[in-house]
Structures are given as C-alpha cells and as structure tokens.
C-alpha cells in the first residue's frame, strides 16, 4: 500500500469491485480498501444472485433506471470477465384469480421502466412451462430478460480484472475517517496509516451511512440491515431451471424459488429488520417462515431435503427518490456529496443492487468526470479476464489434458462438488488469493454440497497450511479469530 | 499391496476399501472371482476404522476386543494374501449401467475400469448442521464428530478446548471420551430424543465413566459467536421435539460437535438408477445383497447404517460372494424373491426382499430397527398371510441397537405359501396371541 492514490474506493463488494474495474480504464492510481480479508465477504456473498428484469422498482426512481440499464449490461460484462450468467427469464406467479390484477400492474410498471418482452401468460401455459408450479396458479408474468449469475464469481472476476489493470487492494484495512483540506477530501485514515487521495468513493454497503456521515454528508440518511435467510435444496432431490416469484407485497418481493448458476435450487429470502448490522444468523422463525411461504409457489418441495442454510443482510436505506414526481423512500443514492468535495457516495444499495452494479459503476465514472476528474483512457487497458479451470464443467478429454500439465487436477478433494486439489491451489495463488476456507468455498463451491465439508474440511485446511506455508492452527474459516483448530494434541497443557 | 500397473478389466470391482469393501473383496476372491479390484479415495485401506483408535471392534468376528486399525489390518492382510488389487488415492466419479467405473486420480488422470460385477461399499457420511437446521450464527467451531475424530486421531490437532456434543450417536460419545483424555472439557451431550441413539455400552464407557452429563430430551436451539463458537443455547424439548419456552440456557463452549446421525453414501448408486429405500437411504437389496440392477451389489453401510463393524463385515461377505457368482455366470438373476415389510413397531428392515430358495443354502438374517424403545420383553414375528412363520424373543428392543432375526433353513417350506411377509415387534406385556 502506497501513501497516495488518485482514487480510494471504500468497500470491495460487487459495487466497489466493478467500480474499480471500470475506473481502471483511465490513467488513475486506484486503491480499494476492505475491512474484511476478502472481496465480497458481506452482502455480496449471500444474496439471491438474480439479475432482475426491472418490473419491480417504482417508475422514475433511480432503482428503476439503474436496474434496467444494469440488466442490459450483464451479457457483455459476463463474457468479458468469464462470469457464469444465464438469462433464464423469471415468472411472477399469481395463485388464484385475485392476484391477476397485481400482475397487470407489475406489467405496466415494467413497461414504463423499459423492461423488454414482458408477457402475461395463463395458468395452464405457466404450468406447462414449469410443471412444479402450484396447481392453483392462475396466471404468471414472464420476464425473459431476468437471469441468474454467480454473484461471488462476478465480484472476484471484477476484482481480478481490476488488479490485472493495476488496481491495488488493501484487505483487513478498515476505513476510519476522512482527511480534509477545507471542505475538500484529501485522504482517508486507516489503522495502517493515512492515505492521500483526490477522490474517495463510498461503496461501503451496510456502513455507507457511517462513511458518508464522517464527511458530514446526508446526516439524515440511515441504513438498516434487513436479514434474508435461505435454504439450499439437495439437487439430487429437486431442481428447477428458472426463477419463481410470488406476487410482491408491501414487505418486498417475497419468498422466491430459484435455481443458481451452480444448479442448486434455493428457497428464500425472508425479510427481517435486525438490530445492528452484523447479525446474519439463522433463526428458527426464519426457517419456519420459509417453509410456510415457499409452499405457495411449489407445494411439493420438502425443506427436510435442505443441504445448506445461509443468511445475508440487505443494506436498506431511507433516501427519498430525487425525482420530485415520485413519492418513494428507499431509493439508491449514487451521487457526488454536496457537503464534501471529492466524495462520491453510493448508499442504500439493496435489491436490485447486484443487477444495477455495472450501471452504478458507469454512473460513478460520469459523476467523476462531471466533478472535474481528469479521466484519460489508457491504451493498455485489458477488459478480458479469464477464469480458472472448473473441472466439473470439462469433458473427460479436457480434464485429461489439464491433469497432464498438473496432476493435482486429478485429485478430487471435495466429493460432492468434485473440486480438485489443482483448483484449490490455483485459487490460493490467484491475483486475489484465497487464504481461508470460506474464501475457497466461495470461489470453488467446495464444501457446499450434501456433506457440507464433512469430507473435505480437514484436507482443505491441510492444503491451505501447506500452500501458504503456515501452521495448520493459523488456518481460519474467514476472519481473524475463526481458526479451526486450537492446538496440536501433544503440544498443549490443558486449562 | 503396491500399486503396480493395473489392468482395466476385472471380474469384480469394489468401490470403497473400508471394512465392507475389504470383506466383500476377500469373499469374492474366496468364492472364485479371478480378479478383484478395490478402489478407494484414501491412501490406504481400512476406511473410517483407521481413525477409530478406540477398542470395541471384533467381539463377534474374532471374539477379541480390538481397536479399529487392528480390526482393519486383519482384513488388509487377508486381502493381500488373497491377491486383491487395490487402487488408492482415487475417486470414483461415475458408474454406468454396463458396469464401467470412471475414476480420477493424480497418476492416471481420468481412467475407466470395467467389472463383470460391481460392489458398492462407499460407507456412509455424517449428517450436517444444515440438515438439522440449528439456528444461530455460522462461526468456526461447529464440526461433525467424525471431522473432530480425524483431526485428533489422524492429523494430531485439537479442534477446541470446551465442547458441547449434540446427539448421542456413537461417534459423539466416543469423541466425548477421547477429547476428555486429550485434556479438553466436554460440558455435556445433548439428545433430542428421550432415548440414546448410540449403543448403551458407550453411554457407560464414554460418558458415565468420565462424569459427562447426558441431557435427554434437550437440544441446541442456537449457536452463539461470530468468529468462533462462544456458547450454545440448550433447551428442553417436548415429545414433538418443540423447544419448551423458558427452558433455554446458554452453555459457554468453543466447539459444538454434531453426532446427529449417519446417511448411507449413495450418490453413485442413485445416479446409475438403482431402486432405493427412501427411509433408509440405501439400495433395496435381497438377502444376497443384490440390487434391482443386475450385477450391482451393496455391502455394508451403503445398504444401511450398522451399529457394529462385525455386522458390516459379515453382510459384505455375502455381497462379495454374490458378486463372484454373478461374474462367473452362476448367480440366479430371478430367485423368486418376495418383499419383507416393516410391520408393527418396526421402523426398517434389511434385506427388503428375500429369496426363500436361498434357504436351501444358508439361513437368512433379517436386520431391523424398532421405531421406538420397547423396554420389556419383545417378540419379533415374521408373518406371511395370517401365519407366524418365525418368532424370536429379546429382553428389550431399542432404536439405537439393531436386532437380528434369523430365518432358519428349515423354515423354507413355510415361505412357499406366501408371496410377501412382514415383521412385527410385539411387546410381550401386551399378551401373546
């Protein structure tokens, strides 16, 4: 880490990483600050991984604009960065005739937002296309532009491409405060020292309000964490090849049933306001809620066939829509701070934040340019990032070729997900190195199958220790303090 | 057992070199199979026995009380003497209906082997936290008992200093003792049922002898701690497993071990399209351990989770013999088998089908588990139509302890007049019919 950069980005979630990647096109020295030990460790690691079509946000809001624009950007983005992404389309499902009116409202809203190809289909057609649907399905709104993406794959791909184009990342380095010259930001303070900068970009997710308040910006803006719990269903038992929404209510989009790019079916999320911003715990209440609500769409799923549960926190803000014609609270903030020169804030980036992220990054570049940043395009910028081999997706002949170059690609460490030692080692030595079990899990999907790490855990810990050249007792699940083993058996004295 | 160049075609291919795979392979050889290959993902044979350094193995088979690795070694030595071929550090990734076995390792890469008969002997895996959906955070320090056992006994690491163990399965109780001997503190073992799920002898030898409390009809209702487990919340539950409000208390600890059941490991079996027993999670087999797909046999915990390795070995020997006969073309594909249904008070029974014709050669062992504890004298009755064909009495029957009812060779004629049977467990206090 140097003591001066042109741009400091606060937060290495999907918005921070895509912004870093976008700004790397220009002749700028860029640093991304991240308090966690890895990119995408918070909200970006636990969400529905959907690229929303955009019929849901209220027309005229920033959410609506960035959702539809962002959605259209994912084809090119995913092909440049080698991200798993598929336009599956999605269905909003009306159960009973009463709900059909809501579908019509949604369709009109989507058309106003500019969502392409929306189609209202009758219950029979819907059930023909998705046989698992509730037999009482009366109609459905089909949105062909909706899709699914490997969210964490997108974060890591954007971050790696940024690194390959010269961006620096500082992990376990928490933003503490801004340094001002008058009302202009000239740097940031971290526990590892002060860093000078011309521009600071707040992509701090759940803490975006805290960060902007340090600069005196939007003192009334608050982010509250809204927890969403999910269940992952055993793919041997049930799979679905699309995304199903219930008719939305005032509480949000409801409990969905959707597939992931990895082929698992997921049920969720719940929606629960929590105290503080860290409690991503699984609750008995949440699990019961999922059980009750998912039956509405797919009555036959049995949640006892769950192989994993997880929870994520949405960064829900209270920003009023800037468009005076629209009465809506909870809009995205993507703006130059009025109160502090040199600061650009993103705030309240909840759903459809992932979908919108590329459009947010694009907008940040525009804001920087309008604010007077000198953006000179680099001739050597490389938009292409190549993913590393994923053995389970290769043909036998391709596998064989790879194993010839590195025999570790023949050694399967995670039985359920068929992840090899070669893939694990490649991630540990990648541009953004995986240094913990969770970091490997997010990158390779190891430990995410039926046995949930029952077979691989001890072996992966051993590989991490060997590849990183540290003792096994230093290997962590994620952050400091999450070490797996406490001592060697013959080398501690008890209590 | 050196790994020389290995041919691609075998009479019998066994998947898994644990106790089931070893016994099946030896038996296949002894029953005339010319060539037998055993494939395993580990670097040595013995399976999970290698990390079971405690004793209690072999009482039935050898009339000796052996540690796991010693029990395994006897079979490893016999397999070597019998000329069984082994392929280690190799994962089987798929099996086809025409008995091709696809493997992956770091020596040959992707390679295919063919067997005239295939024995599935992949064992079982532990149920995970997600399957019982324990609420709370997801910190480090939540491990299955088997993971902790591997760390302590194979790798030499202590996974924590202060433990709570959820579930009274055998591995959990054995780890309670093992961790105590390593100097760790085990606060308690928590069991949601009103009865033990493992063996009674482990309650005495692993918990009571070390003053480790067993809390029946309790469960962990929350995991607390962000980076590492800091405590677990324990609650009493009612008879329907619902936590009793107001009974919860936090028990400080740094590790929660899960011993909440084992599941037969059958991804390969399922994918090849073999008929499964949905309750047990294993393939439906007849008394010769033949599945519904010709040439495919199940051995050991793949079929059902056994209490004792001795029972695994003896069941696997039958599977190995059947595989050898199949490879030789002397296995009767259609043996006129009939279904065996679990009846009153019986949760499950293996085999699920029996061939009465087999009784000409051997008695048939029905292995079953009751659905609830029956603490008084119990009579198991094998019933065909309205006739009781076989009776067997036990002083008690518990879900945690498998009961075996032998159908004697002499009973053969009685089975000719029926085309299905069921087995009931009748408490004798209810009167003899």
From the alpha-carbon coordinates, what is the Rg of chain A to the nearest angstrom?
23 Å
Provide the residue-averaged pLDDT of chain A: 94
Radius of gyration of chain B: 22 Å
What fraction of the residues of chain A are assigned to beta strands by DSSP?
A: 15-25%
Major beta sheet summary of chain A: 9 strands, mixed
Summed over residues and divided by their number, the pLDDT of chain B gives a mean of 94
Number of helices of chain B: 8
Residue share in helix of chain B: 10-25%
- Overall spatial form of chain A: globular
Structure in words:
- The complex is a heterodimer of chains A (495) and B (433).
- Chain A is α+β, with helices and mostly antiparallel strands and 495 residues long.
- Chain A is 29% helix and 23% strand.
- Chain A contains twelve helices and 23 strands.
- Chain A has helices at 14-23, 62-81, 100-113, 123-129, 151-164, 208-214, 284-297, 353-370, 396-405, 421-428, 437-444, 457-468; strands spanning 4-10, 30-33, 50-51, 85-86, 90-95, 119-122, 137-143, 147-149, 168-170, 177-181, 184-190, 193-202, 223-233, 243-246, 256-259, 265-268, 272-273, 306-317, 333-336, 343-347, 412-414, 419-420, 487-488.
- In chain A, strands 5, 6, 7, 13, 14, 15, 16, 17 and 18 form a nine-stranded mixed sheet that branches. In chain A, strands 1, 2, 9, 10, 11, 12, 19 and 20 form an eight-stranded mixed sheet that branches.
- In chain A, strand 21 (412-414) and strand 22 (419-420) form a beta hairpin.
- In chain A, helix 1 (14-23) packs parallel to helix 5 (151-164) and helix 10 crosses helix 12.
- The radius of gyration of chain A is 23 Å and the shape is globular.
- The mean pLDDT of chain A is 94.
- Chain B folds into three domains: 9-125 and 263-333, FAD/NAD(P)-binding domain (3-Layer(bba) Sandwich), CATH 3.50.50.60; 128-260, FAD/NAD(P)-binding domain; 341-427, Immunoglobulin-like.
- Chain B is 20% helix and 32% strand.
- Chain B has eight helices and 28 strands.
- In chain B, strands 1, 2, 3, 4, 5, 6 and 20 form a seven-stranded mixed sheet that branches. Chain B has a five-stranded parallel sheet with strand order 8-16-10-11-12.
- In chain B, helix 5 (170-181) links the parallel strand 10 (162-166) and strand 11 (185-191).
- In chain B, helix 1 (19-30) runs parallel beside helix 2, helix 1 (19-30) crosses helix 8 (309-328) and helix 5 (170-181) runs parallel beside helix 6 (200-207).
- The model of chain B has no long low-confidence stretch (mean pLDDT 94).
- At the A-B interface, helix 7, strand 18, helix 9, helix 12 and strand 23 of A face strand 5, helix 3, helix 4, strand 9 and strand 13 of B.
């Amino acid at each position: 880490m140097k003591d001066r950069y042109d741009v400091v980005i606060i937060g290495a979630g999907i918005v921070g990483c895509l912004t870093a990647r976008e700004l790397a096109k220009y002749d700028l020295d860029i640093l991304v600050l991240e308090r966690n030990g890895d990119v995408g460790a918070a909200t970006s690691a636990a969400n529905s991984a959907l690229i929303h079509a955009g019929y849901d946000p209220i027309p005229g809001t920033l959410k609506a604009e960035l959702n539809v624009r962002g959605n259209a950007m994912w084809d090119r983005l995913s092909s440049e960065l080698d991200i798993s992404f598929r336009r599956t389309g999605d269905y909003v499902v009306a159960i009973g005739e009463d709900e059909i009116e809501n579908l019509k409202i949604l369709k009109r809203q989507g058309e106003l937002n500019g969502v392409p190809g929306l189609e209202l289909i009758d219950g029979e057609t819907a059930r023909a296309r998705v046989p698992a649907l509730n037999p009482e399905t009366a109609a459905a709104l089909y949105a062909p532009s909706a899709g699914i993406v490997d969210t964490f794959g997108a974060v890591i791909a954007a971050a790696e491409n940024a690194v390959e184009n010269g961006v620096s990342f500082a992990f376990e380095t928490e933003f503490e405060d801004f340094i001002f010259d008058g009302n202009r930001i000239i740097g940031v303070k971290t526990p590892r020292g002060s860093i000078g900068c011309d521009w600071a970009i707040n992509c701090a997710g759940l803490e975006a309000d805290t960060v902007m308040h340090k600069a005196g910006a939007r003192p009334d803006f608050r982010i509250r964490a809204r927890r969403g719990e999910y269940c992952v269903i055993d793919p041997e038992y049930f799979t679905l090849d699309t995304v199903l929404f219930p008719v939305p209510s005032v509480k949000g989009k409801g409990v969905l049933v959707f597939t992931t790019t990895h082929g698992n079916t997921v049920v969720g999320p719940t929606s629960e306001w929590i105290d503080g911003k860290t409690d991503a715990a699984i609750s008995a209440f949440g699990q019961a809620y999922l059980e009750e609500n998912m039956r509405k769409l797919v009555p036959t799923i049995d949640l006892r066939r769950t192989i994993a549960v997880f929870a994520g926190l949405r960064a829900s803000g209270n920003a009023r829509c800037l468009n005076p014609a629209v009465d809506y609270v909870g809009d995205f903030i993507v703006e130059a701070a009025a109160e502090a020169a040199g600061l650009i804030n993103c705030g309240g980036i909840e759903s459809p934040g992932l979908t919108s992220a590329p459009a947010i990054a694009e907008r940040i570049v525009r804001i920087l340019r309008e604010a007077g940043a000198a953006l000179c395009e680099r001739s050597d910028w490389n938009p292409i990032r190549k993913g590393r081999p994923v053995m389970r997706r290769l043909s036998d002949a391709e596998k064989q070729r790879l194993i010839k170059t590195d025999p570790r690609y023949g050694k399967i460490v995670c039985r359920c997900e068929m992840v090899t030692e070669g893939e694990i080692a490649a991630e540990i030595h990648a541009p953004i190195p995986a240094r913990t079990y969770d970091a490997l899990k997010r990158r390779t999907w190891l430990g995410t199958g039926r046995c949930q790490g029952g077979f691989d855990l001890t072996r992966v810990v051993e590989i991490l220790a060997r590849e990183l050249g540290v003792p096994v007792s230093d290997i962590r699940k994620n952050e400091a303090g999450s070490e797996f083993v406490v001592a060697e058996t013959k080398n501690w004295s008890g209590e | 057992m050196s790994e020389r160049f290995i041919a691609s075609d075998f009479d019998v291919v066994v998947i898994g070199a644990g106790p089931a795979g070893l016994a099946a392979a030896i038996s296949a050889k002894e029953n005339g199979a010319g060539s037998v290959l055993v494939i395993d993902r580990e670097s040595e044979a013995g399976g999970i026995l290698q990390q079971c350094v405690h004793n209690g193995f072999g009482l039935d088979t050898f009339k000796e009380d052996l540690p796991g690795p010693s029990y395994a070694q006897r079979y490893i030595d016999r397999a070597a003497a019998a000329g069984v071929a082994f392929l280690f550090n190799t994962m089987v990734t798929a099996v086809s209906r025409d008995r091709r076995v696809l493997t992956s390792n770091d020596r040959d890469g992707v390679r295919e082997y063919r067997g005239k008969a295939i024995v599935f002997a992949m064992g079982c895996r532990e149920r995970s936290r997600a399957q019982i959906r324990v609420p709370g955070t997801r910190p480090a320090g939540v491990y299955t008992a088997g993971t902790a056992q591997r760390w302590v006994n194979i790798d030499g690491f202590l996974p924590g200093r202060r433990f709570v163990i959820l579930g009274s399965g055998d591995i959990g109780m054995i780890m309670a003792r093992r961790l105590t001997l390593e100097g760790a503190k085990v606060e308690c073992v928590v069991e949601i049922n009103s009865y033990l799920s493992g063996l009674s002898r482990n309650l005495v030898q692993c918990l009571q002898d070390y003053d480790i409390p067993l809390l029946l009809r309790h469960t962990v209702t929350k995991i607390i701690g962000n980076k590492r487990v800091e405590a677990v919340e324990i609650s009493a539950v009612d008879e329907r497993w619902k936590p009793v409000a107001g009974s919860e208390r936090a028990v400080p600890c740094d590790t929660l071990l899960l011993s909440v059941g084992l599941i037969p490991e059958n991804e390969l079996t399922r994918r090849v399209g073999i008929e499964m027993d949905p309750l047990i999670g294993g393939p439906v087999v007849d008394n010769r351990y033949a599945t519904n797909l010709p040439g495919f046999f199940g051995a050991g915990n793949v079929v059902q989770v056994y209490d004792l390795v001795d029972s695994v070995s003896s069941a696997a020997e039958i599977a190995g013999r059947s595989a050898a006969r199949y490879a030789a073309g002397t296995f009767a594909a259609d043996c006129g088998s009939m279904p065996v249904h679990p009846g009153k008070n019986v949760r499950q029974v293996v085999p699920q089908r029996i061939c009465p014709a087999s009784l000409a050669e051997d008695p048939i062992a029905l292995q079953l588990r009751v659905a609830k504890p029956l603490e008084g004298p119990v009579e198991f009755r094998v019933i065909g139509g309205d006739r009781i064909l076989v009776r067997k009495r036990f002083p008690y029957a518990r879900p945690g302890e498998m009961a075996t009812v032998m159908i004697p060779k002499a009973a053969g004629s009685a089975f000719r007049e029926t085309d299905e049977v069921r087995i009931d467990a009748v408490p004798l206090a209810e009167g003899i019919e």
